[in-house]
Automatic annotation (TrEMBL):
Domain of life: Bacteria
Keywords: Membrane, Transmembrane, Transmembrane helix
The protein, known as: Glycerophosphoryl diester phosphodiesterase membrane domain-containing protein
Taxonomic lineage: Bacteria, Pseudomonadati, Pseudomonadota, Alphaproteobacteria, Sphingomonadales
Transmembrane segments: 21-42, 70-91, 103-122, 128-148, 169-191, 211-231
Organism from which the protein derives: Sphingomonas spermidinifaciens
Length: 239
């Protein structure tokens, strides 16, 4: 079927209005709070003076290595949040919250495995920007498939996503890029202001800006999940 960005985002908005009483607490507890904790307690990366790109890359790798525990923990919680939200709206029979939590917990290792496979493929394609972006579009429905089709493993979910997004790779990339870049732009502005104010006046003054940054990141994630739900339902309708 032909997908239309306007209609998809309108349907995502309608789903939000109908279910926000359920989505807001889940997003707040499992996504906003860990993100805010990362912003509050993770030390800011030190700027690199001179040395060129190689020095900047070395500094970035050192920063990631030094803070790997906190970063990976938050990423895991965010992945669990995705598994829970997608299971709640896509698992067969529209489960209750408790049932969706059990389903997500039982399949979380599959979400992790699929994430690692996709990350590895993207890293291989990172040297060629356009193929990597196209792969993001083709991977768009992997987590939706894992939540909606209980007997599907990571490799099968990737194959299924490729089948569903055939001829729609760039469309799916745009659909995921819009909420991601909008959320990241708002997050960067808010966190940058928070860092500047925090360094001048203390953590308490930076807290509202860090909260805004975490809220922007969370909003981008929620919109992405809702779009995935809408697109998966549209592409599998009647199958």
């Amino acid at each position: 079927m032909k997908l239309n960005l306007g209609r998809v985002f309108a349907a995502a908005g309608a789903l939000w209005r109908a279910e926000r009483g359920l989505i807001v607490p889940l997003a707040g507890l499992f996504y906003f709070v860990p993100t805010l904790a990362l912003l509050l307690f993770l030390p800011a990366a030190e700027p690199v003076a001179g040395g060129g790109d190689e020095a900047a890359l070395d500094a970035l790798l050192a920063y990631a290595r030094d803070n790997a525990g906190a970063i990976l923990s938050v990423n895991f919680l965010q992945l669990a949040a995705s598994a829970l939200l997608l299971s709640l709206f896509l698992a067969p029979g529209r489960p209750t919250l408790a049932e969706a939590a059990r389903l997500a917990a039982g399949r979380l290792i599959l979400f992790v495995a699929a994430g690692l496979l996709m990350w590895g493929a993207l890293m291989l394609g990172a040297f060629l920007i356009l193929p990597a972006l196209y792969l993001i579009g083709r991977f768009f429905l992997v987590t939706a498939v894992l939540a909606a089709e209980p007997r599907t493993g990571p490799v099968q979910a990737i194959a299924r996503s490729f089948a569903l997004t055939a001829g729609r790779g760039w469309w799916c990339f745009v659909a995921t890029a819009i909420p991601f870049f909008a959320g990241q732009a708002a997050t960067t502005i808010a966190s940058g202001m928070g860092q500047a104010i925090g360094s001048a006046g203390g953590v308490a003054l930076a807290l509202p800006f860090d909260a805004l940054a975490a809220a922007a990141t969370t909003a981008g994630w929620v919109l992405t999940m809702l779009v995935k739900i809408v697109v998966y339902r549209a592409l599998t309708k009647g199958t």
